[in-house]
Specification:
mainly beta; globular; 25 strands; 3 domains; 352 residues
Length: 352
């Protein structure tokens, strides 16, 4: 019997779009062979220069940016060039008033990673804290904003199933990016940062209140990074969808014949982090290289330009194969978490 996938074509829910800055206002299309969507989260990175990772979403508003490699509060200035609109087939950019800006410097190359949530946010009262939620239950992604209480609480996420990964950030004050990932043993009683290379820290219940996310809510402790009294926050929540997204862990073997990670689809986007030791987060996508070995990576926790040459992996029709022994992806006995989104389910995918 043929398998029916909730998201049979990853192009309708996630995009990795490359473009070149113009220094003037411009629209960026995420269409691939005429298939496109209106994004609710856009994560832009300058590939050729050390400029910050810029995240904008439809719930906070198109003019508001956060930076995954910084603890800074939300920024609204357009001096470096920010998004000006989410469109039916991509996003638009401002000109900026400096020659070297975050999203649109003339002649600079960029990638814009995009996810589709549910458009206009709605009020969600499933948790003890009322949240504003834009949720795409089909693709397992929601954007959530809420105001902290400083006490143990729950927040509705709108997905209808438990998220496997949550990335949360305090908006109106500096603070670390806090990640929940189901692939880490003891995750609900610990923490790991997106904005640093630090290992997972266990035995700290104050972030996720020692409680794994549920079908309608995720739990918070009193940690000020996620639940400071009166402070505003945003959380990006993802649930695994067969044939479209996967979140898991693997153990390195320290060999050039590294682990194979089965996802059930040809990946478009892959993020990995070692959790038992210091190591940078790495992101790969098929738009910047598109063939094996797909070794150009970007760093969510650093502003560095695109790197290449020492973190090899193969992107296959049904997953990924690590092709190098190193700290970031494949130390013998090292533990790693990953998040992955599809170009196509295995039934439709081909290796390149």
């Amino acid at each position: 019997m043929a398998t029916t996938f909730a998201v049979p074509d990853g192009r309708v829910a996630m995009a990795a779009t490359t473009y070149t800055g113009t220094g003037a206002t411009q629209a960026v299309s995420n269409a691939v062979n005429t298939v496109s969507f209106q994004p609710d989260l856009v994560w832009v990175k300058n590939r050729g220069a050390a400029w910050n990772n810029n995240l904008t979403d439809s719930v906070r508003g198109v003019t508001k940016s956060l930076f995954s490699d910084l603890t800074d509060a939300e920024a609204t200035s357009s001096i470096y060039g920010y998004l000006s609109a989410f469109s039916s087939g991509g996003f638009s950019l401002t000109a900026g008033s400096t020659s070297g800006n975050l999203t649109n410097a003339s002649g600079s190359t960029y990638v814009g990673w995009q996810w589709k949530a549910g458009g206009t946010a709605v009020s969600n009262t499933a948790g003890s804290i009322t949240s504003s939620v834009s949720a795409n239950t089909t693709a397992g992604f929601s954007v959530v904003t809420y105001t902290g209480t400083g006490a143990n609480a729950t927040v509705g996420h709108g997905l209808g199933v438990a998220p496997a990964m949550i990335i949360a950030k305090k908006r109106n004050n500096p603070g670390n990016w806090m990640v929940y990932h189901s692939g880490i043993s003891g995750m609900s009683s610990g923490y790991i940062f997106l904005n640093t290379d630090a290992a997972f820290t266990s035995g700290y219940p104050n972030v996720w209140n020692s409680t794994a996310p549920a079908a309608s809510v995720f739990s918070l402790g009193s940690d000020a990074n996620v639940n400071g009294s009166g402070l505003t926050n945003v959380a990006y929540c993802w649930a695994p969808i067969a044939g479209y997204s996967a979140f898991g862990s693997y153990t390195g073997n320290g060999s050039a014949d590294g682990p194979f990670i089965y996802t059930g689809f040809r990946p478009r986007w892959f993020m990995v982090k070692r959790t038992d030791s210091t190591s940078n987060w790495l992101v790969y996508d098929t738009s910047r290289i598109g063939y094996n070995q797909a070794n150009n990576y970007l760093l969510p926790d650093l502003s560095n330009a695109e790197g290449s040459g020492d973190n090899y992996l193969d992107i296959l029709s049904n997953g990924l194969k690590i092709r190098v022994a190193n700290q970031s992806t494949n130390t013998s006995g090292g533990t790693y978490i990953y998040a992955c989104f599809a170009e196509n389910p295995l039934r439709y995918a081909n290796a390149r």
